[in-house]
Design brief:
By secondary structure, the chain is of the alpha/beta class. It has helices at residues 9-23, 32-45, 51-60, 66-74, 86-102, 120-135, 153-161, 166-170, 175-181, 193-196, 230-243, and strands at 109-113, 144-150, 163-164, 182-185, 188-191, 199-203, 216-221, 244-252, 265-270, 273-278. It folds into two domains: 9-74, Chemotaxis Receptor Methyltransferase Cher, domain 1; 86-278, Vaccinia Virus protein VP39 (Rossmann fold, 3-Layer(aba) Sandwich), CATH 3.40.50.150. The structure holds S-adenosylmethionine.
């Protein structure tokens, strides 16, 4: 088959199963075109004649990083600065003051951006913390630890580089913060060291067990659960609840909800938005 030919139902189902198994992304029937447009280039690059062969070779290993390359191509890394605004307002006005007041001396406040894509979310968190610390003397930015993880190595590479073009910057970055926290060079804006060093980037597949991550005071997991099956969302929320500190906060995307999926969280409504606290009842939905 030439890569330009339409992907067959059998091939599409093969790719769907592969994605479901390796990253839990559930593709709807209507996403055939997406598989074709995103994977065609790999067929050419690896000189492979069909999508089934591509999947077979990825499963067999051997072809350097083919499995990762497929996942990388099939993830949607859409993101922007201070996405939806309210989570960052709630962070500044409600979450950080509470956490800073209750902080045990010597213990860091830990925040996890669990699908961090190209870095806009964790860096927006870091800038919010920095602004909070400036306005509240006595709380040093060094008292916070931000872990940012994603399955996509390409997204993580861009995040670590911390360098953004005009279009990326135009998507949500407020002018005063751009001036304060970025250096412009040859049409690119590079995030300054003081923000960069607040964030640690690691590759992490949300399918993996969370043991070993420690506990977190705040978990952001936004705009990724929309790609997952109801069963996996349930499992994921249970795992998040287990590693969230008793007074911790769970922040999900505007089009995502815990309703009917998890009884482990209670909604907190503020600034027209909702974030979640761990339910004091403990783990209701196992
Ligand atoms: C649409 S972006 C969301 C970025 C950011 N949280 C936001 O809301 O702007 C979704 C991210 O989830 C990542 N992702 C998809 N499946 C994943 C998995 N199984 N484990 C970890 N990350 C995953 C993708 O690589 C992508 O960068």
């Amino acid at each position: 088959m030439s890569p330009a030919e339409e992907i067959s139902d059998m091939e599409f189902n093969g790719v769907r199963e592969f994605l479901q198994k390796n990253c839990s992304i559930t593709l709807a029937e209507s996403k055939k075109y997406l598989v074709q447009t995103r994977l065609e280039g790999l067929l050419r690059e690896f000189k492979i004649s069909s999508y089934l062969e591509l999947i077979k070779r990825a499963k067999a290993g051997g072809d350097n990083g083919l499995l990762e390359r497929i996942i990388d191509k099939m993830t949607t890394n859409e993101t922007l600065w201070f996405r939806d605004r309210y989570p960052f307002e709630i962070l500044r006005e409600l979450i950080l003051p509470g956490l800073a007041a209750g902080k045990e001396s010597g213990k860091k406040i830990r925040i996890w951006s669990a699908a961090s894509s190209t870095g806009q979310e964790p860096y927006s968190i870091a800038m919010t913390i920095r602004e909070f610390c400036e306005a509240n003397s006595g709380v040093p930015p060094g008292g916070f630890e931000i872990l940012a993880t994603d399955i996509s190595q390409t997204a993580l590479g861009n995040a670590r580089a911390g360098s953004y073009d005009r279009l990326e910057i135009s998507r949500g970055m407020p002018d005063p913060l751009l001036k304060k926290y970025f250096n412009e060079k040859n049409g690119l804006w590079e995030i300054r060291e003081e923000i960069k060093r607040m964030v640690r980037f690691n590759q992490f597949n949300l399918q993996k067990p969370f043991a070993g991550q420690g506990t977190f005071d705040v978990i952001f997991c936004r705009n990724v659960m929309i790609y997952f099956s109801p069963d996996f969302k349930k499992e994921l929320m249970r795992k998040f609840a287990e590693i969230l500190a008793p007074d911790g906060f769970f922040v999900i995307g505007v089009s995502e909800s815990v309703l009917g999926i998890s009884g482990d969280f209670n909604p907190i409504i503020h600034k027209g938005g909702v974030v979640y606290k761990k339910s004091p009842k403990g783990f209701a939905a196992k």
